[in-house]
């Protein structure tokens, strides 16, 4: 597993800064799962009831909803497959390794989307968004996805500490 650091503090390219932080948080999420037993990955210690695997599956779908279905207006299967009546879900057969691989593949897809667009470009119509007024800019979308990762990496810090006492970085 890669222990990537934050992007360099001298980085001035906004695209690379946002992409670098997204990569950083994907790796942080991966680190939070490393060493947890399958039972811990599939159980919750929180009143909300979500499990670490459910959270990772949510992040996979969240990024896909915002960048592929949303910004690129791609036709994607099951964009809300991580939700069931307001609850996060994960397929029973899914493993941490599989979900982390899909998380990183989604990051590679995000990078390709971002590299082919301008930060002020607006999301396309026909995917997630039906009217031009709904379509956010790419920079807004990236900030939104970044805050989702940061918030949920913090949630995983707490879940991990409750599970086995390991403290996050």
UniProtKB/TrEMBL annotation:
Pfam families: MST. This is DUF664 domain-containing protein. It comes from Phytoactinopolyspora mesophila.
